From TrEMBL:
It is found in: Membrane. The keyword Iron does not apply. GO terms for cellular component: membrane. The keyword NAD does not apply. This is Phosphate transporter.
Length: 496
């Protein structure tokens, strides 16, 4: 047999071996993230055993530390996507850059500004007097931890960004009802939380749409885009700086230093003026030589978007980590002190588990939800992503001033929806856009032909319905699951 006859067979065999090796490599990768996650859980439990070695209830604390670490991993996989997703979707950041920035600033926010005191009953959801027994209280908190972790994990798997704080609140409520009945729940507080399901995304969407309308009106659909950008981009960047200064003052640094809303507003105004004065010459220099087209405008928003992703991550770490690990801190305090307290200190080792767990969860599992928020709901460019990031900061400030509880997750995703739905309306209905297109293309019949076309769909309805459904059922689902887990833990403790 000649070599020419052997070659095709040899090539096919080598190709099969190569495909087998590739499949084996891909399969091994799928086990890396779960393996590293399991290792982190063991480390967290090991840390807990060191601090509670020989103490009564050590086993419960160790198990709770493992569950707390599991919840932190799921927060990183799900909740953090809202902070960096728009920057990734607009291609201002690569997925790798976004992961690194978010991991660093989430951890920094948790450890620097995360605070050392949290409410153990998750913002007054359950009356402490109804669960004064330390054993019952520990089971309520453990049930809340387990149920919220499982629910956020499920939401991540189906690709729905949900509020971790709502999951924890639902978990505490469900276990509290199972322990002490419906009268133990502060239903007024629960009503305000339920209202935030609507307030957060709607307010975020409206603010994002308003800024996108401003950008389209005063920059994009102007004859000289570069001149318009030189005039307005410094103002927009200054608004972002002022908003984030006030945002971090009110929310992100509240555990480090107490700042009133008025003081935060003054700081925001000072930051606005300072930024505007500094950015004007920079934008003028950066815009020199740029062509008079939309692609050129995108370059001017890249740096502000990167900064916004970092600041949103820092604020999220400062606010949400403590809420998520609050039940773990409550368990640690109750077992060590033998009493139920309305507020407890968060030990450094507990905060560290939360901070690093979020970072690891983001690095190992975060890309799925980051792509969902940034790319799959609607198409984002730097200007649209800027509107989303700015909306997140402003909405929290407005809600804080009105005393309304809001979810950063719902705000950010609602802003993405707002941008997409606004573009649908604007593309079809804006007379300014029609006049601009007619002027640029000479198509005088554009408006009449546009009216005969079906309204464009720029938001994926399937994702919209999935996410909204996940939002609506987060609290009741976490509550029901937590009640079942509490019953199981109670049966186990009674059996012993």
């Amino acid at each position: 047999m000649t070599n020419s006859a052997l070659k095709p067979t040899l090539d096919k065999d080598l190709e099969k071996v190569s495909q087998l090796q590739g499949a084996t490599k891909n399969l091994s990768r799928t086990f890396v993230a779960p393996g590293l996650s399991f290792l982190f859980l063991l480390v967290a439990m090991g840390i807990a055993s060191i601090y509670f070695s020989g103490t009564l209830g050590t086993g419960v604390v160790i198990a709770s530390a493992g569950v707390g670490a599991y919840l932190a991993l799921n927060i990183g996989a799900n909740d953090v996507a809202n902070n960096v997703g728009p920057a990734v979707g607009s291609q201002a950041l690569s997925i790798t850059g976004a992961l690194l920035i978010a991991a660093i600033f989430e951890s920094a926010g948790a450890l620097i500004a995360g605070g050392d005191v949290v409410g153990t009953i998750s913002k007054g959801i359950i009356d402490p007097a109804t669960v004064s027994n330390s054993g019952v209280f520990v089971r309520v908190m453990l049930g809340a931890l387990i149920s919220s972790a499982l629910w956020v994990n499920l939401a991540t798997w189906i690709g729905a960004p949900v509020s971790t704080t709502h999951a924890v609140v639902g978990g505490v409520m469900g276990a509290g009802i199972a322990a002490a009945g419906y009268t133990s729940v502060n239903w007024a507080t629960m009503g305000s939380i339920a209202a935030s399901w609507v307030i957060s995304p709607v307010l975020g969407g409206l603010i994002a749409a308003a800024f996108l309308f401003f950008i389209k009106t005063f920059i994009i659909y102007q004859k000289d885009k570069i001149a318009a950008a030189r005039r307005w981009v410094p103002v927009l960047i200054a608004i972002m700086t002022g908003a984030f200064t006030a945002y971090l003052s009110v929310k992100g640094l509240k555990k480090v230093v107490s700042i009133s809303l008025f003081q935060a507003s003054v700081l925001g105004i000072v930051a606005f003026v300072t930024t505007w004065l500094l950015v004007r010459p920079l934008i003028r220099h950066q815009s020199e030589g740029l062509e008079n087209r939309n692609q050129s405008l995108r370059k001017l928003f890249r740096i502000p978007l990167i900064c916004s992703a970092a600041l949103l991550s820092f604020a999220h770490g400062a606010n949400d980590v403590a809420n998520a690990i609050g039940p773990l801190a409550a368990i640690v305090h109750t077992i060590s002190a033998g009493e139920v307290a309305a507020k407890v200190s968060i030990p450094l080792w507990v905060m560290t588990i939360g901070a690093f767990g979020i970072s690891f969860g983001l690095l190992l599992f975060g890309p799925k939800l980051i792509r969902m928020v940034g790319q799959q709901i609607t198409k984002l460019n730097p200007m649209r992503a800027y509107c989303v990031a700015l909306s997140a900061a402003i909405t929290v400030i407005v809600a804080s001033g009105l005393g309304l509880p809001v979810s950063s997750t719902h705000i950010a995703v609602g802003a993405v929806f707002g941008v997409g739905f606004f573009r649908e309306w604007y593309t079809q209905s804006s007379k300014r856009r029609m006049r601009y297109v007619q002027l640029e293309t000479g198509r005088t019949t554009y408006s009449r032909r546009a009216e005969t076309h079906r309204r464009p769909k720029l938001v994926r309805r399937s994702h919209f319905m999935t996410i909204v459904a996940a939002w609506v059922i987060t609290v009741p689902a976490a509550a029901g699951l937590s009640a079942l887990i509490f019953a199981g833990l109670t049966a186990l403790s009674t059996g012993q």
